[in-house]
Design a protein that fits this description.
This protein has 232 residues and is of the alpha+beta class. It has four helices and eight strands, in the order E-E-H-E-H-E-E-E-E-H-E-H. Keywords: Cytoplasm, Ribonucleoprotein, Signal recognition particle.
Length: 232
Amino acid sequence: RIEEVSDSDSDPSEMDPSEFDPGLMNSIIQPANIPSTAPQYSQQQQPVLQPHFPGRPPPDQNAERERTKHYQCLYPIYFDSSRSRAEGRRVGKNEGVANPLAQDIANACSQLPVTGQVVFEPAKTHPKDWANPGRVRVLIKEDGKPAGRGSIKNKHQLYKLVAEYLRAHPTTEESPMRMRIAGLPPPTKPIPPPAAPKGWKLGTILPLHSPALSGGGVNENYFKDMMQEMQG
């Protein structure tokens, strides 16, 4: 059976389970700077997402929000084969993948025919997928016309193209290690699978900054420490 996505589907309201401003960790990544999922990276090659602290020029969040408000949003849950349509999946079940990650969605978008307008927001969270943070915004239309080289006509085609990439680059236990966040040390021991609260579906592979991994290889006081550093 072919499943269709309604044009009336809207992006969900944002959720922040860690109780900090997710805008602090937003990072605009141009395609050339988004790491490929194919090779393995050394410590020097891994990208670092840098929060904004006092003493550094803060980004104009209002201007950035206004500039990107018409961009198409992509969350990992849209491509999660373990989810139903009602639970947030937006591609056909056979098109979905296990454990999709936002960083891989950003990688996919970097290879699509868009003009570099890819915004990776590692701390934005879908309300039905609190344990898998990360969102990607993509400019596919500008002034009512297809952006870039014009080969992506609508969000449904965008979903399909991203899903194809994710199926060709399946998530592995090494995938989260390719995205480093400044101030978040890499784990020194294997991260145990997250314990899913009753009634929630969690992926078995999550980003290192996932709140569901606070008992594993990630320092559970990381976000608290970050906020204290910001407050001086």
